[in-house]
Amino acid sequence: MLTLGQIQTSSVANIAGCNPTDPQFTQYVNEAVRQLMDIGNWWGTVQAIVGCVYDGCIVWPKKIDAVLGLAVCGRNVPLANQWYEFVPFNDQHRHWAEQWHCGHRPNLVEFIGTVPTFVPVTPANPIFVQLTCDNPIDYGKTVTIYGNDVNGKEITAVRSDGSTQRGVVLTLAATPPVTPTLLTSWYATTKDLTVGQVWAWSYVAGTGITGCIASYSGGDINPQFPYSRIRGFKTCQPVRISALVKLGYEAVVQASDIVPLDCLDAIKAMIQAIKKREAGADDEAAQFELQAIRRLNLQLRNHLPIEQFVVAFNPFGDASMNRVTGGFM
Predict the structure, then answer these.
(1) For the sheet containing 128-133, what is the strand order?
(2) Which of helix, strand or coil describes residue 127?
(3) What is the three-class DSSP state of 88?
(4) 227 near 114, Cβ under 8 Å?
(5) What pLDDT does residue 262 have?
């Protein structure tokens, strides 16, 4: 695991040519990581996750850029979105096409879009929202929530000068702020940069907090989470899923922020490529970019070696285990 703080204390600063505490240094690191993550899948950027879903709704963690494979209750499930269905490359193509045309598409995982909360806010479950933070330094920072009230109208706030703005603005404080009206939808959020984590809770007057519905890290300024639905889901009981996912790029801001590419040599080479390209030396930039990709490929090979051979160790000779009894083979 590599953090921005570790990069700041490494020799990457010699390549960047600026002080590690300078915002320009962080910008170089972010740009290098973003470009490398766009180029391909590397060690640390593709991960397996497990969890439970309810009612066939999946709100993926914000850092997930794409779902590469999914299994529900141990059974593989095809992926789909608004335009395409990703089917196995075999003779079942005709079978899937027939299902599509007859309108029968069971057990598909369909990518819907993005949402700002873990739990959807709907007219069937209107809520007040309370915000808390885990670091008092963030008191005074603001979070703006965009949604609709119980009348279906967009919620608004009045500025200090008397003008009206979209959304309701909540200011983080020792006494957690609560939205002044019930929300029947919540479709977007903007947030100031914070040092710590910010938590959103569903709140019921007289009862208090009823559950966590979102969590935002310090660098989140416009948080959105990928959202999928399992078509053909028949039960309201929680169902276990496992998935192979590709992590998306997320800018690092603070020293404790994690950089998904755990390869200093690749980051160095990519920063050199960026600086060469800015200077108009495109050929040299391409060479440094190839160096960065080569470093990441070598890292992949070290973790997942292609040239593998089988080693068999048979302490009981050629006999199978069911024949090993009483010390005789």
Answers:
(1) 128-133, 198-204, 208-216
(2) strand
(3) coil
(4) yes
(5) 87
Number of H helices, E strands in the chain: 6, 19
CB 263 within 8 A of CB 39: no
The owner of tokens 């993926």 is: 60
- Go through the chain and tell me how many residues it has: 329
DSSP string for 131-148: EEES-GGGTT-EEEEEEE
The confidence band for 107, taking pLDDT boundaries of 50, 70 and 90, is low
Euclidean distance between CA atoms 161 and 309, whole angstroms: 73
Sorted by where each begins, the domain ranges of the chain are: 2-43+250-303, 46-115+226-247, 128-216
Q: Are 30 and 252 in contact (CB under 8 A)?
A: yes
Measuring CA to CA, how many Å separate 67 from each of 49, 70, 85, 101, 229?
Answer: 10, 7, 13, 25, 13
Give tens-digit pLDDT for 61-92.
777 777 877 777 767 776 665 555 555 545 44
Burial of 266 per CB tally in 10 Å (0-12, 13-18, 19+): buried
Q: How far apart are CA 184 and CA 8, in angstroms?
A: 45
Q: Do residues 244 and 48 make contact, with C-beta atoms less than 8 angstroms apart?
A: yes
Mean pLDDT, rounded, for 118-123:
82
Instruction: Please tell me the pTM assigned to this model.
Output: 0.58
Strand residue runs (E) in 57-97: 57-59, 64-72, 75-76, 79-80, 85-86
